[in-house]
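User: Quick one: structure for sequence A, then sequence B.

Assistant: Sequence A:
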Amino acid sequence: MKFVYKEYVLRKAEPRDAAELMRITNEDEIMKYYGESGAYLKNEEEALQEIHWYNNQLSKHAGMWVIAQQSTGEYIGDIGFNDFVKEHNKAEVGYKLKKEYWGKGIISSFINQIVDYGFHELHYHRIEAVVDVHNFASKQVLIKNKFVLEGVLRESEFEYGHYVDLEMYSILQKDFEKIQ
């Protein structure tokens, strides 16, 4: 399946993406809501391990794709599924994007495409997203893509010296079919 939006494409991660992946994970404004545990990549070796994980998971009903400029192949972000639970046919969607590409509809379009892929090709029953209550942009993207707010996970994670509330969003395969 090919994922395309305007001049952007999703592709498998490659070793050449390591430097940009490391750079994006070290930008405070981009990573503000990812928490401090493991989100920041310290060196190229860690970035290469992350790329290996992205691709390894793609063969296991999850994984991340690189969001790239179609003309150059340049890494500008990533999007995909993690935390796949086979017994329940569910996974969590996650994404990040370089700041200069925010507000262009890139994440929203690719969420719609990979959710379709998750339901029709991977046979998910449910796709979840867990979002910091203060991450308004991410919440808007999910709502635009018909994810439903299920509730607040109060003080669910300890980040940067204090507990943070997270909101749980989801979309079910049967609900996705109704809106297509």
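Sequence B:
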Amino acid sequence: MARTRSPEVTKRNDEIYARWLRGATLTSLAGEYGITRQVIGRLVAERHPEEDEDLDRSVYRGYLWRLFDEVKDLYDSPGWKMSPNGGTAHGPDGEPAVDTNVKLQAAELELKVLESLRKLDARDKAQPKQLQVVHEIANSQAMADIATKRRELEELARRAGQPAVVPGEVVRELPPAR
């Protein structure tokens, strides 16, 4: 039997989950609240909307979020560029040069992790083919309108005494091109 949590702990856990939803990392939350990242991960997992997912899926989700946190830390502090002699490279003003290649690679990896999480949550499901159906309905209505206009024109031509036009028949010769 699970023990009941105090209202203070429940409130803290709700705060942690709300801050995680707004983008705080597990690492930053763990540091701020003085508990381990694993505990923060469990608190988030308890409140996650997908409660009945299998163990492999939830473990994979946890690995992805941990990787995201580590890559975010790397993006936030990428380190310094190194000069050919092994020392720190310096920028034009003499300050140490930030390693922008590491920052760029970390940003690319963050995007890949987020894409994997979106796929895991099935957030990018294919949308229904409603546009195709609308196009087919509009196309059939247009064809019906054309057939109606053709009948009206043929009726007007018959009343005017013009002979009926047979598809493919030459009605009159065009003058030669100049």
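The two ends are 99 Å apart (CA to CA). The chain is about 60% helix and 0% strand.

User: Thanks, that's what I needed.
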